[in-house]
Design brief:
Structural class: alpha+beta
CATH superfamily of the largest domain: Aminohydrolase, N-terminal nucleophile (Ntn) domain
Number of strands: 25
Shape: globular
Number of helices: 19
Strand order of the largest sheet: 4-3-5-2-11-10-12
Largest sheet: 7 strands, antiparallel
Length: about 500
Amino acid sequence: MINFWEEDKFHDECGVFGVYAPGRQVARLAFFGLYALQHRGQESAGIATCDGRSAYSHKGMGLVAQVFNEENLRPLQGHLAIGQNRYSTTGSSHLRNAQPYLIETIYGPLGVAHNGNLTNALHLRHQLLKRGVGLSSTSDSEVITQMLAAPADVWAQPLLNGDEQDRWVARLRAFMQVAEGAYSLTLMTREAIYAVRDPLGLRPLCLGQLEDGGYVVASETCALHTIGAEFRREVQPGEILRLDQDGVTSFHGADIERRALCIFEYVYFARPDSLFEGQSIHDVRQQLGRQLAREAPANADIVVGVPDSATPAAIGFSLESGLPYTEGLTKNRYIGRTFIQPDDQLRKEGVRIKYNPLTANLAGKRVVMIDDSIVRGNTAGPLVQLLRDGGAKEVHVRVSSPPVRHPCFMGIDMATKQQLIAHQLDVEGIRRRIGADSLAYLSLEGMETAVRSTITQPAGHCNACFSGQYPIPIPPWLFSDERDQEKVIFEDMWG
């Protein structure tokens, strides 16, 4: 399956899911959980289950509904399950990199699903290869799986408290001592489901409870609601949770130095009906739009949003500015990922294939077009032209986040600096490039103010893609434009 029209957005690496539910068809729960998390990954999907003795799995390339059917769900027996939707960040788009990873260990099966990206993955990979561990993929998630299969003292001094003798907690703690970067993990063993979140909390993870007493962990609360689970709380940064016959047990995994949830989760990644840090994503996006209207008003007649992710911000801009909100673009939600290769002319018409202008709403109007971000700048121009073709007299572009000038290495499908339009051009240069009558972005301070507007609990955010201030040290080679090429990898590994 290919993406014939590359949308001008970042892609979060994946969504993860885990469930402990005796007496339930956990594979079906996992299927619908992943279905709700489809927006977090559309390259591959997989589910692994365990009945306390044996483990079963199925995974494939494509959307959840394309990978799974009645025939391949039926053999996934047991009361334990984990699942994952994937975009490729570390590791290419190939079936061998699809998750969950499932291996046999001396203590039985171990399944791992990972959301995030380890910035020291090459170093850890090298350590595994030196120990004689064979690797079959290029994914840092397989590195995590193989590290957890080894005794804890291979990697670090185990940190057991008192009489805690959970071998998997010991291994997870040892892993957390040496891992750098972003990881929200769901693990499946013969006895339990584990949920793990890195000490910065870069990627989200939450806990829910089923009506019959089972427990669920997922990247977003929207997955809990889909399967009838009640949201309990977020998994805390540096925390390890175990879900088993004793309920939910929390363990200290690593110390928290600061909190740094990716702020782009609020801007674009998360589904609008999810909750982070006690806040509704939809409400925060409206606040981003309101703040944008205060900072960058426009002399216009109507406000339209680029569907669907910018709609809440467009509504907020409308409410704050007093300009009426209306639909200016309709979106074909089934275009964008297909098995059928388009010809060159269709490629050129990519934006027109995905969007149509509503001429009755646009004709003769001065339009404010709200978008949540401009990354590469390859669709903003065609969208502006589409509005003009639909009859708009003027098109003023407003963006509900700051200019994206820096790459991310913590679990986002992020371009290099050379591919980021805001790294190459100033705001006026971008305006000329996309053909807008005016262009303005939300300020970094305004974005942070909007995101924090209703938070009532400890919080902190990573804004590195906007500010260039990374919450962890980044290996210099990762900034190379050739960072995906083998010569860079081997030079880093072997000197």
